[in-house]
Fold these 2 entries.
Entry 1:
Amino acid sequence: MEICVMKGILPSLVEGFFDLIYPSNIYCICCGNIIDDSRPYSLCDVCVRTMKWTNGRTCSCCGKRLQDDYLPDLCTNCRDGGHLFAKGFACAEYGAAERDILHRFKYKDKAYLGRKLAEIMRDRILSEALELDLILPVPMHRRKEKVRGYNQAAVLAKELARLMETPYSSNLLLRSSDTEAMNQLSALERSRNVQEAFAVSSRKKDLLRGKKVLLVDDIFTTGSTADACTDALLRADASEVFVFVFAAGANLISEEDDGIRC
Ligand SMILES: [Zn+2]
Ligand SMILES: [Zn+2]
């Protein structure tokens, strides 16, 4: 009896705890300015206008935002070669505001920002009316996760799965080698190594058969990481893999970025 009561109380306690340590309805999650609690996603009006939302034309393959004067429906990357995943989606193009949000989320020990980012992602992906069986994060190597304290892709994917009431697994797709230690390699060498970096857990392989999977990450550039994950998932008989990121762009390299996400 006591356990049943506790089960009901715990989620609201956790919610309350998060609200105490992070009053997300008071500060903009991008610039940190004070806002009122009516602002959707805890973003101020300036940041909402500054962000490059993917609410116009996007690449029909990877989901990157296309410039108005660029007429083809595939971005230059996808015109040079397609992807293994069925289709990609993004909430925004990776620019200064998107970098600021993700930087605070990933490097400032603010995992709770993932809750707001997942709300944005939920509303974006619902507009696509996809039928999904499973939501998975792009896995992070154990050593790096230990240093950072959390895998930002897993925080987003788990919260998104909760909001969408869709099954989630953090240990089905595994990162089998430390691609994060390849910063000194050329882009081509990194791409080759990334291809072999992911594997599906042999104990859980059966869970993927015939499943439509949404693979979640925070950012997307060339798509090599997403393709490598997709390859592992399709080999384990997933029927279709969609890729979904918060921000996608051609060049994400900055002093804070890993320099390896592809
Ligand atoms: Zn702001
Ligand atoms: Zn594309």
Note: Residues 1-50 form one domain.
Entry 2:
Amino acid sequence: MNGFTLGTQGDAEAGGILIGSYRGNHVQVRQCTVPLRRDLRERYLFDRKDRGHQLAATLAWTKSFGTETFVGEWHTHPEDFPTPSMIDRATWGKIVRRRASPIVFLIMGRKGLWAGCGHRGDVKNMSLVSADSP
Ligand SMILES: [Zn+2]
């Protein structure tokens, strides 16, 4: 990690991909990439332009003999409790229509997290279990 800061601390959004595996009904996230040099980082936009994200997924796939793969994406929003933007919805729609397996989408805000799961062309909110819940 060189010069990595979360968008919640600076002016630009941050993001990356989630890498993991599918086990029965579960998605196990094991690694994530962080913003890379060629990514497009703006105040309200993060675009994974750097090839390093795809390379990390390919490397994980090879090293795990085909069990670890791209399972989702994360990025930050400069708002306390984030909600997906129209661009987020459009981008995710393209991803989930291309894939048969569920995909995890995370948005980190300043105080909260938005989590969703995309499957069969549709992205649904995941309910968040608070740390305070019994
Ligand atoms: Zn977004």
Note: Residues 25 and 102 are 9 Å apart (CA to CA).
